[in-house]
Design goal:
By secondary structure, this protein is of the alpha/beta class. It contains ten helices and 13 strands. It folds into two domains: about 90 residues, Periplasmic binding protein-like II (D-Maltodextrin-Binding Protein, domain 2), CATH 3.40.190; about 140 residues, D-Maltodextrin-Binding Protein, domain 2, CATH 3.40.190.10.
Length: about 270
Amino acid sequence: MKKTLAVILTVIMICVTFAGCKGALGYEDLAIVDLGLEREYFGIAFRAGSDMTRKVEDITLDLIKDGTLENLSKKYEVGAVGEADYVPKADACEGSGDWDYIKAKGKLVIGITDYKPMDYRDENGAWIGFDADYAKAVCEKLGVTAEFKEIDWDYKLVALEAKDIDCVWNGMTITDAIEKAADCTVPYMYNTQVAVVKKTDVDKYKTIDDLQGIDIAAEGGSAGEKVITDNAKLKDGFKSVTAQTDALLEVMSGASEAAIVDLTLAKALIK
């Protein structure tokens, strides 16, 4: 059964990528359902006690003041915060050695996943997106190169602590668990979680309670997973996948009836 599902998902992926596969399901067959969930906020995670956190906060404030983040927000249609809402708060942590370590390498290794509109590849294979462009602007001011490294989102904090990456910067929702294990910047963007279902099923699912008793896909370790597993009525239907786009593929293939994903991603893919 697993092999059959894998084949189905692969065929769907190919058909979505190449318009010549007529009649295949595409993102246009999906619909976004606003479940009225609370707004969440994105931040950047550095190692605990890092002197990088405050450096990046201060540079971010400069990028807000000079209009860079506002322009990126319009370009990628996301909700970056304004100057009044962005107040750097991280400790300077001078002498932590993290900045010296990164400066000596000449690069900031940034942990990401393929997550449009935050981080995704253009037609030439280069990483672009709100977070990618934002990170490049910060690195330019730091005088280092931005190096993007795809990671397993479930193990992002492990990769950070092991120095496989220098930060997690990928539409990362700030949670208590992350703040206990790492240093987070103040939020630079707001977001919320939404359900994605087939258009033909949209009238069946209007509230969070309507998702009870069905299979619901979400990226492992994501805010979407937390929405599902924190709800006693939904947690038995949770299906963990590697990426948010995989959750959408689950719905497209019929393997799951719904997916819980970031609104930013859903808006970027589902027109």
